[in-house]
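ok so i was messing around last nite and threw this chain in just to see what happens. nothing serious, just curious
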Amino acid sequence: MSSRRKLFVAIGIGIVLSGPPVAAINLWLGSIAEQQGVEELELSARRHMALSEARIAQTVETLDRVAARNIDSCRPGHIDALRQMTFVTTPNKELSIVAPDGRTLCTDVGSQPEQRTVVASEPLSKNSPVLLEVVRLGARPEQWIRIRRPGVDGANGVAAFRIAYDERGRF
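result:
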């Protein structure tokens, strides 16, 4: 047998003998990478949920403070108070006075310029009077989150708006 042929046979035997261990290592490393990816996604999801829940809790706290001050009309003093509260709570884009049937009566910028359509509405938590609503403003395609605290005994309530997702897809 020529030395060249022996070299090709040796290379072939080396490939056959080293192939299964290399494939096994490749599968093992692939499963480790997949597991790390799953763990990172779970961690990111938990972080995102915790951040969203904290922002919602902050908004509910703001609505409770507004309601405690008996701000429930479109009088200039009440609109000024809504403006001040909007700047205090950064996740909020708007505070508004809402009729018992859910219609927006006025906002912290004054009158309501656009029709609001409630797409979905659910209690924020079991036995909670606070509602988490998905709302569309006029003909705009984006959806907004409205957290609404209804008034007591048929009185006007208050609500806070924030965009459902920002430009980076975050709540």
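not much to say yet. The chain is about 45% helix and 25% strand.
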